[in-house]
Every structure is written in C-alpha cells, then in structure tokens.
Automatic annotation (TrEMBL):
EC numbers, comma separated: 3.6.3.41
This protein's record includes keyword Protein biosynthesis: no
SUPFAM superfamilies: P-loop containing nucleoside triphosphate hydrolases
All residue ranges annotated as the ABC transporter domain in the record: 6-195
Enzyme class: hydrolase
Alphabetically ordered keywords of this record: ATP-binding, Cytochrome c-type biogenesis, Hydrolase, Membrane, Nucleotide-binding, Translocase, Transport
InterPro entries, A to Z: ABC_transporter-like_ATP-bd (IPR003439), ABC_transptr_haem_export_CcmA (IPR005895), P-loop_NTPase (IPR027417)
GO molecular function, one term: ATP binding
Gene Ontology BP, a term: cytochrome complex assembly
Superkingdom per UniProt: Bacteria
Protein name: Heme ABC exporter ATP-binding protein CcmA
Length: 196
C-alpha cells in the first residue's frame, strides 16, 4: 500500500470562541496506529475531522490523504436502520465503486453471520458497530480514521478490531483511533498521544 504520512504543521483549531489546540506539530507515519486520547471535549473528534478533510483549521498546514485514500468511521455508524447489514454494505459499495463480492467475507470476519440479514434497527449497539467497521475490509484504503471504534464492542470485538489494525499496518497502512479505552496492544504498533 502506498501511503503518504499525515503531517500537521503548526496547526490551530477552534470551535466557537474556544481554541482547542494551538500550533500543533505532529507526524503520523504509515505502519503505525496513533491512539488519540484526551478528556471529553479536548478536541479529539475535531482533530480527526481536520485529518479527514472535513474541518478547516484556523491556522497552520495539514498535508494528508485524498478522500478516496481514507476510511472515516465517525461516532455515528451511518447505517440505514430499515436495511440489513448486507444491504447497507451493498449501498456503500455502490457509492464508492467497491465490489459487493467482498461483503460476506467482511461480515464473517466481523463475526456477524447470524445478524447480517436482519434490519439494522433490530441489531445491538455492538452489532451495529461491527456492521459499520466491516466497510474497512471492502475497499483497501491507506488511512483509517476511526472515532471511538471500540464504543459498544465487547472484549472479543475489541480484539478483532486490533487484529484488523495490525494487518492493515503490516500492509503499509496507518490509522488514527480515538478511544477512552485501552487498545488491545499485542502485535499492534501503537503510539499514544494525548490532547490536553
Ligand atoms: N457544533 C459545535 N459548536 C461549537 N462548539 C462545539 C461544537 N461541537 C463541539 N464543540 C466543542 O468543541 C470542543 C471539542 O469537541 P470534540 O467533539 O472535538 O471533543 P472530543 O475530545 O472528541 O470529546 P469526547 O471525548 O466527548 O468525544 C468541545 O469543547 C465542544 O464543546
């Protein structure tokens, strides 16, 4: 995978009249997972939005991937409640030019065999999260930007995600992950970084 680093150069971001961080320098290299930590309201989601190109910083420079080179999975799962996991993923494939043939394997990997044909509204919180995370496997993209991906996942689900991240990094990809929980770190090239 051919991934360029994410480079933040003297970046300042504000929300309303509150400056969240000022003149921030940070370089995130392919092959690593940056575990972005910080208290509620510290600005983790706001920073992730800058990395995804969804928010313009007040000052400074950011160089990073084009939209088609990154997977963004935010707080919300972006699943249609009336459609099944399979149908949701098929719609995602249609929007992004991905092959729907990969859907069964992706859902198997996320251990969603039993639940995949039911309307998403009938799934548990963790099953919905797993359905959203299955997108990561449908199209190879160098950067994964994941906002609280562990929210709602059980221990097995967290280990599963750590396995996906480890494989992704071994293939030359990179990831930025916000979480208030510890990431299962075995075999995971993780760097911890805190916003104050
Ligand atoms: N729409 C908005 N308008 C103005 N300020 C906002 C808006 N959304 C968030 N903020 C403020 O921006 C700051 C950073 O929010 P952000 O969501 O980036 O924090 P976070 O570190 O991700 O928090 P959490 O751990 O609670 O998810 C907070 O102080 C919040 O009150």
């Amino acid at each position: 995978m051919n991934a360029a680093p994410l480079v933040l150069d003297s970046l300042t971001v504000a929300r309303g009249d509150r400056v969240l961080f000022e003149r921030l320098d940070l370089r995130i290299a392919p092959g690593e997972v940056l575990h972005l930590q910080g208290r509620n309201g510290a600005g983790k989601t706001s920073l992730l939005e800058v990395l995804a190109g969804l928010r313009t910083p007040e000052a400074g420079r950011f160089s990073g991937p084009e939209p088609e080179q990154l997977h963004w999975i935010g707080h919300k799962n972006a699943l249609h409640p009336a459609l099944s996991a399979v149908e949701n993923l098929a719609a995602w494939c249609g929007l992004h030019g991905a092959d729907t043939a990969g859907i069964p394997a992706a859902l198997d990997r996320l251990q969603l065999k039993a639940a995949r044909q039911r309307p998403v509204r009938t799934l548990s919180t963790g099953q919905k999260r797993r359905s959203a995370l299955a997108r990561l496997l449908l199209q190879r993209r160098p950067w994964w930007l994941l906002d609280e991906p562990l929210a709602g996942l059980d221990v097995e689900g967290a280990a599963l995600l750590a396995g996906l991240l480890a494989e992704h990094c071994a293939a030359g990809g990179g990831a930025v992950v916000t979480s208030h929980q510890a990431l299962p770190e075995e075999h995971l090239p993780v760097r911890h970084w805190s916003l104050r």
